[in-house]
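User: Can you recover a sequence for this backbone? Please restate the input before giving your answer.

Assistant: Of course. Working from this structure:
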């Protein structure tokens, strides 16, 4: 974990699709190549320490909305077994019926078994992919996301929801709207993350962000299937 980084790890999302959200710690994203991402640094190889921290974070969960989102700056496969078991116990105890996890495309073949392990105990799992954009060249040559598949229909066979990254050079209002519309066509919900400055090579593009705020945001701000994070801490964690 990054020294001096003291994130908020539990929050409640009150407006669209109300749910509790926890930011847990795993042993680290196995891809780590995305050129816009430094949050995979929030990880540790000390599995027991991760579990103890996750246990403390999960103790905040009340089940008030019957829905929980788990993020861990990587994929669900990076979480230790004890943490996953504890999540299941908490869901059962607190009446949580729907749970969201995130996952990189490289683990797509692990998704169904993982989902089954929740379905078997009566909990609906929802898996979110960080897709970032349907523009293949931007995604793979610039962002280096590591998703070879081009067909959204195929991607949607594995994943229920997607993250989109907007506010970067090479995007226009038309391309951002097109990404959102394609996302809404194939996935149950989408989350638009506006690029924020970090230490990585991909930088926010002020002009593109202005285009987003002026033309794109008004179209989707009231759409219940679209979360929009103008800042990456807008969910209250991070
Ligand atoms: S897959 Fe996710 S956590 Fe891993 S490097 Fe890319 S954006 Fe970061």
């Amino acid at each position: 974990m990054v020294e001096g980084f003291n994130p908020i790890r539990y929050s409640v999302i009150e407006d669209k699709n109300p749910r509790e959200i926890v930011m847990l710690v795993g042993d680290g994203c196995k891809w780590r190549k995305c050129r816009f991402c430094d949050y995979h640094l929030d990880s540790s190889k000390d599995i027991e320490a991760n579990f103890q921290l996750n246990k403390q974070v999960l103790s905040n969960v009340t089940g008030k909305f019957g829905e929980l989102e788990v993020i861990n700056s990587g994929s669900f496969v990076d979480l230790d077994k004890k943490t996953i078991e504890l999540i299941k116990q908490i869901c059962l105890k607190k009446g949580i019926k729907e749970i969201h996890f995130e996952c990189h495309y490289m683990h797509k073949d692990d998704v169904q078994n993982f989902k089954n392990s929740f379905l078997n105990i009566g909990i609906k799992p929802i898996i979110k992919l960080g897709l970032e954009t349907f523009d293949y060249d931007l995604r793979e040559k610039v962002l280096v996301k590591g998703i070879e598949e081009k067909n959204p229909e195929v991607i949607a066979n594995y994943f229920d929801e997607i993250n989109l990254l907007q506010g970067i050079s090479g995007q226009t209002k038309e391309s951002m709207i097109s990404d959102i519309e394609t996302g809404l066509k194939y996935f149950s919900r989408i989350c638009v993350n506006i690029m924020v400055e970090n230490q990585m090579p991909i930088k926010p593009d002020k002009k593109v962000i202005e285009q987003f705020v002026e033309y794109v945001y008004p179209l989707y701000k009231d759409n219940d299937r679209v979360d929009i994070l103008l800042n990456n801490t807008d969910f209250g964690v991070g």
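That completes the design. The two ends are 13 Å apart (CA to CA).
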